Amino acid sequence: MPFGCLTLGEKKDYNSPSEVADKYDLGQIVKSEEFCEIFRAKDRNTLKMYTCKKFHKKDGRKVRKAAKNEIMILKMVKHHNILQLVDAFETKKEYFIFLELATGREVFDWILDQGYYSERDTSNVMRQVLEAVAYLHSLKIVHRNLKLENLVYFNRLKHSKIVISDFQLAKLENGLIKDPCGTPEYLAPEVVGRLRYGRPVDCWAIGVIMYILLSGNPPFYDDAEEDDSDSRDKNLFLKILSGDYEFDSPYWDDISDSAKNLVASLMEVDQDQRLTAQEAIAHEWISGNAASDKNIKDGVCAQIEKNFAKAKWKKAVRVTTLMKRLRASEQGESGASAPAAGAAADSNPDGATPVPPAGSTDAAAASTTAGSDTQTAAGAAPSLPSAARREEQPQARCNGDVPQLLPQRQGD
């Protein structure tokens, strides 16, 4: 379908609201995300259903940038494991993005409903994700917010494909990227450490996803009290920086050595040594017969329900708030000497040199906020971010929100 409705960069070539209404019948709001509202939409001619994301320009520059960025990236991609752009409109007051409608469930829900679940099932999921990411990387596109909430089954048929959604934080890799972005628990060490980064961050996130799907546990976590988010996030980021995770018993006792090898190769702290998506596809656990057929459902499901049933691990978007506070503190402390445990921070949700603590946002929906390319001064002294909460939405950000608790690394 042509996208003649929208030409990015032309200031006055707007669509009228009636053009949208004449072509699509928008139903009620399905959910509200931080930067947009989600609707079910029906094409008035074909009666086919789609998902519509509506961005209000009055909500600010970040919202406008998020919409334009997602449209730009989605117009570049066409892959069967990526939710496809169908149509896009820009009126004077809004952006409308129409996407394929995925009617299946999130991967977690699918696992919980299975009578039998094995490594081979996980391998099938990971293969599809890796193929989509390898395609994106061939176009020099970095997704920057791969996580379980952004992986859904396209429909409810038995052999439905997996599709990747949410490209608001995606970015073209024209040289290494500096601004931190993403969801805290999935951030790669180079993002947390505020180093320049690129496509390898997506491979790290895939390793985190695979770890969770095989054990039901997150690889990095902290047992600090729920209301002590600053301490919890500081410890979380410290563990990520050092790659401090284990294949702990009994959760990994029945998992094959081949699976553990692939996880470890994807979660390699040194991004130059990390497996690429294309290399991971060639791994015996993905393309060979190394994935075990043993039923691991009971153990995995028990841990999933324990770790993820609550919104605790879906507080995905602490990063932005973190970064906002960070920038504020940078401006206030730029003339002061660096604090002992303080550090410099960047302006985006993915990581800070040392470890950024986070203000938290409860969320259970799979949505990420738009990425912004705002850069912060390297070497400024950040403090802990406060939590600008948007209830019921997981968010990952990119707009100056990840504070740091550790000193900045050299070579940043």
The helix/strand series, from N terminus to C terminus, equals HEEEHEEHHEEEEHHHHHHHH
What's the level 1 CATH class of the largest domain? Answer: Mainly Alpha
Query: In percent terms, what proportion of residues is strand?
Result: 5-15%
CATH superfamily of the largest domain: Transferase(Phosphotransferase) domain 1
Indicate the structural class: alpha+beta
Number of helices: 12
Q: How many beta strands in the DSSP annotation?
A: 9
Helicity level: 25-40%
- Specify the overall morphology: globular
Mean pLDDT, rounded to whole units?
78
Placed side by side, the strands forming the largest sheet appear as 1-2-3-5-4
CATH architecture of the largest domain: Orthogonal Bundle
CATH fold label of the largest domain: Transferase(Phosphotransferase), domain 1
pLDDT < 50 stretches = 311-394, 399-412
